[in-house]
Every structure is written in C-alpha cells, then in structure tokens.
Design brief:
The structure holds two protein chains of two kinds.
Chain A lengths: L6 E3 L4 E2 H9 L5 H8 L12 H12 L20 H5 L6
Antiparallel strand pairs in A: 1-2
Chain B lengths: L1 E8 L3 H12 L4 E4 L28 H14 L3 E4 L2 E6 L5 E5 L2 E12 L3 E3 L12 E3 H9 L8 E5 L3 H12 L3 E7 L8 H9 L4 E3 L1 E7 L6 E6 L12 E4 L2 E4 L3 E3 L2 H5 L4 E4 L4 E4 L12 E3 L9 H18 L7 H15 L6 H17 L1
Parallel strand pairs in B: 1-2, 1-6, 2-3, 6-19, 8-15, 9-10, 9-15, 10-11
Antiparallel strand pairs in B: 4-5, 5-6, 7-16, 12-13, 13-14, 17-18
Classes of the chains: A mainly alpha, B alpha/beta.
C-alpha cells in the first residue's frame, strides 16, 4: 500500500508523505509541524486531521498517544470574517 | 456583552438537560446552539432508546429531542441563542460567540460545555473521494434532509452507530453490501447487529479498508483481512463495487473551549481521546466550568442527559441556587448514571472513568 498521495489534512491539502517528510527532517512536535506545514489550520481547525497527526507522531517518536503534546488551542474555533471581528460587539 | 448566571454551550441531550436543571433550581441560563434547531444529534435518531425510564426509554431519540426542546422553549429562565457558535474562551472568563456575522461576548458565573463530539475519519489512499462519508453525516442526510447518499453502501465499523445507520440505510431501500470491522468482534448491541444480519448484511470482522478507487467519485473499495497485529493478510483482498463508503470508527470529544480555558486534560482512549479531568459532579479543574455528554467522554445520549442534569444542578448550587434539594436531586442522578453504566455494556466507560479519576488524583 502506498501512502504517497493519501490525504491527511483535507483543508490544507497535505498528504501522509508530506507529513512524514517533515518528521524525517526533524520536526517532531505537533506545534512545529503545524507551523511549517499549516496542518490543522484550515476551515476545520484540525478537527479531522488532529488524530491522524497524533498517531504519526506517536509512531515516529515511540510515545503513546497520551504522551504526544498537542499544539496550543486558540480562538476562534471556526473561520470568522474580518468584517465580523472589526464590527465589534453587537451592543457596544 | 450578554450576562448570565449559567452559560451552556451546545443544545444536544446534555446541554438541554443542563439548561433545564440549572434553570429549575432558579439560575438564569443562556443556551448557545450552533445549529438553527435544538436537540443536537437527537434530531436524526429515529431508533428507540433503551436507557432508563427517567431518560425516556422506549421513546425514539427524535421525540426525546422534541420534548426537551419544548421544555427549554417554555422555560422563562432560559434564553436560547440558535445559529450561534462559541468562538473562544478568554482570560476574563467571557465566551465569545458569533451569530450570522455578528460578534458578541457572554459574561457568565458558570460555564457548562456540552459541545459533543466529532466523527473520526480514516486515512487510506483516495480517502478524499466524493462518496466517502462519516456515518453520522449519512444519518443527517437521510433522517434530517431526506436525501439518500447513493445506491450501494459499504459500512466501516460495527459499533452501534455503524450498525444502526446500516439498518436505517436498508429501511431507506439502499443496498448495504457489507459491514467491515477491524476488531475481531462486533461492538454494537446484539439486538441491533442481529437485525442487520437477519436482513442479509454480512459483518466482516478483522477486516479493514485497503484503498478506495474511482475517478470522479467512489466506484470501488478494496478491503482485506487483518492479522492480530493489524496488518493486512496478503491474498485476502476483496473488491466491493459501491458508490458510498460510510465510515463509523468512533468519535472524538470537541474540547477546544476546555483547552482554551486551561482545564487540566488527559488522553483516555476509552473515553475517545482528550477529555477534561472532572469530579463526579462534572466540574472540571477550573472552578465553575463543567462538562457533560460526549465532550466529557464518549458514551450515549441517556447518560449524556443525566450528566447534563448533574452539571446543571451543581452549577446552580455553586451560585447559591436550589440549596435545599440539591443533595437529594444530585444523589438520585448519580444513582441513575451508575445504573446506566452497569453490566458488560458499561465496561468501557467504567474503565475510562476509573482512569480519569485516577489522573485527577495525580493532577491535584
């Protein structure tokens, strides 16, 4: 079974091979891989691919899923238009 | 800025019960729901519940959702914000929400997170072809929108969701070619699994998806037997001609808000992944932040409702509401939870909770 073209992160169009290449280059934490590859930074905010990256990192580092550290969670939980944010609070 | 005693995020079974319970003790409640309707996943559950008498056993999920939604609608202490998504939790304890392009924050004295869970996906070659769905998504398509996903379906996962959705596909006149399960045994309740077997659907245990094939959309799925090390056994490949592959391989709690709030978290496989450490009253390590339902550990809707009750009652109690009958009510609810989790069916959740409470002791 070849994983070359198998998609891991649909939002950012990243394949399993892309991620394994980053890991092979020495990026071994969730935060680092997120920063270099943009995995989990698309519309779904990692809700689809997070578990897959966790498993890849566990496999590569010999850690358990519980031991692999996640990246920091930050607002917003879903894409929000700049117009919405610039508009400020409804009753301000 | 909005202000409330208790803010509940998510109007599924846990959130509806949490809102009703907190309001029942006298607290003011704001209930935020992303969808334009209340009920969460109950709205598509056309099957009957087992559960307990108190949690509407023998009633269909969809009707339970309607009963709870009506009660919430009629409750003057509960303000409902539909079509509204919680965007984040901030240091001043406020929760930012967004509704149809409008931004707002909610100041709250207690927060109950009942955001539920997300369907897990599988990674295999061509797993992004059109025609590959989550089982929950198919259930929504069919039972909420009246749309069938295709003509011939292969289901991955013989847990309750996979088997129930297979049955509902058959009810809709769609051909379910096979149910494929990686584990050596069926996870679903026997009564559900027997039903689909009687209707002629093979359940292939110790099998997995090798790849999907198709040009514009899904045309075929290659499956194979796996050994006890989860490796495909060469020569056991089979090709299924299907236009739909339904993936039902578990759920992951939707915990972003809890991470943002700084709740202590632990990864517990039996509970579906990362969950917040919490006590028996559903309060997390951050005082006055509660969890209930699938976000606190994947279980089922009856337990979610009772957890919602416990969280709602305790949040209200912490704010000084309903002190006179709190103990009595919360004890009854705890007993009900213990009953729901009894027997072999509750083994997994009991094991998960044991680990969770142990982690809690370490963390404290």
């Amino acid at each position: 079974m070849s994983d070359d073209k198998t998609i891991m992160c649909r939002c950012e169009d990243l394949t399993v091979e892309d991620i394994r290449e980053w890991i092979a280059k020495g990026y071994k934490t969730f935060e680092e891989i997120k920063r270099v590859s943009r995995i989990g930074m698309g519309p779904c905010q990692g809700r689809t691919c997070r578990q897959h990256l966790l498993r890849e990192l566990a496999k590569a580092t010999g850690k358990t899923l519980a031991e692999v550290e996640l990246a920091t969670f930050r607002p917003p939980t879903k894409p929000v238009s700049l117009e919405t944010l610039a508009g400020g609070e409804v009753d301000d | 800025m909005l202000k409330t005693d208790v803010l509940v995020i998510g109007a599924g079974p846990a959130g509806l019960k949490a809102a009703l319970s907190a309001a029942g003790q006298g607290a003011e409640v704001i209930l935020v729901e992303r969808d334009p309707f209340l009920g969460g996943q109950l709205v598509k559950q056309t099957h009957m519940f087992f559960g307990s008498k108190e949690q509407y056993a023998s009633e269909r999920g969809i009707n339970i959702g309607k009963i709870l939604a009506r009660d919430v609608d009629e409750n003057e202490k509960i303000r409902i914000l539909k079509d509204t998504t919680a965007l984040g939790y901030y240091e001043d304890k406020r929760v930012a929400i967004e509704s149809q392009g409008k931004f707002e924050t909610v100041d709250n004295k207690a927060l109950i997170v009942t955001t539920g869970a997300q369907e897990n996906t599988l990674v295999f070659p061509n797993c992004d072809l059109p025609g590959i769905y989550g089982a929950g998504a198919v259930q929504t398509l069919m039972n909420v929108h009246g749309v069938v996903p295709g003509n011939k379906v292969a289901m991955v996962g013989a847990g309750n969701i996979g088997v129930i959705v297979s049955y509902q596909l058959l009810q809709a006149g769609i051909d379910v070619v096979a149910i494929i399960e990686a584990l050596p045994k069926i996870g679903a309740y026997l009564v559900h699994a027997s039903k689909v077997r009687r209707m002629g659907v093979p359940i292939l245990t110790s099998h997995t998806v090798i790849e999907a094939q198709g040009t514009e959309r899904l045309e075929r799925v290659v499956i194979a037997k796996i050994d006890d090390k989860w490796q495909p056994v060469p020569g056991t490949e089979q090709t299924l001609e299907v236009d739909v592959l339904c993936v039902s391989v578990g759920l992951t709690p939707l915990t972003e808000l809890l991470f943002m709030a700084g709740c202590r978290m632990a990864h517990i496989g039996e509970l579906g992944g990362h969950v917040a450490l919490r006590d028996k009253n559903m309060e997390t390590s951050v005082s006055n932040i509660f969890v209930a339902g699938d976000v606190s550990g994947i279980e089922e809707a009856s337990a979610a409702m009772v957890e919602g009750q416990v969280a709602g009652l305790t949040a209200a109690r912490n704010l000084g509401y309903g002190l006179e009958d709190y103990e009595e009510k919360v004890t009854a609810a705890q007993r009900e939870l213990d009953n729901l989790r009894r027997g072999p069916v509750g083994g997994k959740i009991r094991a998960g909770l044991e680990k969770l409470y142990k982690e809690g002791e370490v963390a404290v």
